[in-house]
Amino acid sequence: MLLTSKLRRIALNQQGLLKADSFGHGKKATLRAIKQLGYLQIDTISVVERAHHHVVWSRVSNYKPELLEQLVTERQLFEYWFHAASWLPMSDYRFALPRMANNNGERNWFKSCDQKLLQHIIKRIKVEGPLRARDFKDTRHTNSGWWDWKPAKQALEQLFMQGELMVSRRDGFQKVYDLPERVLPDWVDTCMPGLEEYASHLIDNTLRAHGFATFKSMSYLRKGQKLRNAIKEQLVSRLESDLLTSIDLGNNNIVYFNPALLEARTPRSQARVSILSPFDNVIIQRQRVSDIFNFNFQVECYLPEFKRQYGYFSLPILYRDRFVGRIDCKAHRAIKSLEVKSLTIEKQLDANFVDSFHQALLSFSAFNGCQEITFASSCSNDFSSIISRRQN
C-alpha cells in the first residue's frame, strides 16, 4: 500500500500534476511541459477544448492556445506520429526518423500511392510554397465516405509519414505541408539513430515522463521485434550496472525506475482537483492507470451510445493523488455556457473536495470560454446539487 502510494505521487510529480504550475507560467513553461511529457497528442474532438490545449492547461494555468501556435511557428515543436498524431519537441526530431524510414516493422498508412502524383505534389510545393490538401483538386466523380480521401490527400499523408514533407503549421485545423529543409531549423540533428540509441531514447523518454515504467509501456505501440529486443537488452544492462532497479507489483508486473527516485522525498499531494483530458499523457496507458491508481478508464465517444456508462467525452477527475470520478461536459460556446451532462464520484472524499472541485470547475469553464455552468437533469447526485446551488 505504501509503495503504491509512493508510486502514484512519483508518477504525478513527473507529469507535473502533483502541484499547481510546477513548470511555471507562459510560453517557456508550455515548452518545458511538452519536453517533460515527450509528446502532445493532437485531437479533433471539440465538445470541450481540444486535448492538446487541455493537456497543457492542466499543467500551466495561464496557458492560451496561441502559445502552442507560437512554439510551432518558432520551430520549437514539430508535428509527427508518436502513438498518435502529436506535437513533439524539435530536439527529438531525429528519433522520428526510424518510423519515417520504415525500418522497424512500422507501416505507413497507404500501401501504394501513384509515384507520379507523389512527385507532382513535391514539385508543386517546391515551386509554390506550403500547400494544403484542398489546394489539390479531386478529379473523381464519387466519394464513398470519410475514409475515402482524395488521392492527393492520401499522397500528402504518405509523403508526410515518409518524412519527405513536414507540417509547417495548421490553417484552422488543416495541415499545411512544406519541404523539410524549409521547416527544420539549422541546429536540428538529422542523423539517423542506431537501434541501441533509439531504444535508449524510448526508455529515457518514458522514465522522464512517468518516473517508472513497464517494458510494455516503453515499447507502447512500437512495432518490430528487433527494437523490442534492443529495449529488453538495454533494461538488462541498466539493471546489471545499477542504473535502474525493478519491482514486481504482482502477477509478474515489473516496473523499472531510477532507484534514487524511489528513495528521494516526493512532494505531498495537495488538496486540489484537476479535470483532465481523456487523452492526457498520465492516463493514456489504461493498464498502468488500473495498476497504480486502481482506476479503470475508457474513452466512450468511440462506443455506440447504448454502451456508454459515463458519457460521450467523460473527463477523469484527479483529486490529490487519486482519480476519484468522471465528468462529462459540453461547451456551448455560442452562449458561453458549460453544460455538465453527467458527474460520477466514485470514492469517499475528505471535506476539502467540494471546494476544490468547485474551483476546478469554474477554472475549466473559463478555459472553455464559458461564463456559466449548467447541470443536466440527469445530474442528480449530491455533488451536482451542491455545486449547482453555488452557481445561484
Describe this structure in words.
This protein has 392 residues and is α+β, with helices and mostly antiparallel strands. Among the domains are: 195-263, Arc Repressor Mutant, subunit A; 298-391. The protein is built from 15 helices and 13 strands. The relative contact order is 0.12. Residues 144-148 have low confidence and may be disordered.
Give the topology, please:
Blueprint: H1 2-15, H2 26-37, E1 40-41, H3 51-57, H4 65-73, E2 77-81, E3 85-89, H5 97-101, H6 115-128, H7 151-161, E4 166-171, E5 174-178, H8 180-183, H9 195-210, E6 212-213, H10 215-218, H11 225-240, E7 245-248, E8 254-257, H12 259-263, E9 273-275, H13 286-293, E10 314-319, E11 322-332, E12 337-345, H14 353-367, E13 372-375, H15 382-391
Parallel strand pairs: 12-13
Antiparallel strand pairs: 1-3, 2-3, 4-5, 6-8, 7-8, 9-10, 10-11, 11-12
Helix pairs in contact: 2-4, 9-11
- Going by helix content, strand content and strand pairing, the class is alpha+beta
Which regions contain 5 or more consecutive residues with pLDDT less than 50? Answer: 144-148
Distance between the termini: 42 Å
**Biggest beta-sheet profile:** 5 strands, mixed
Q: How much helix, percentage-wise, in residues? A: 25-40%
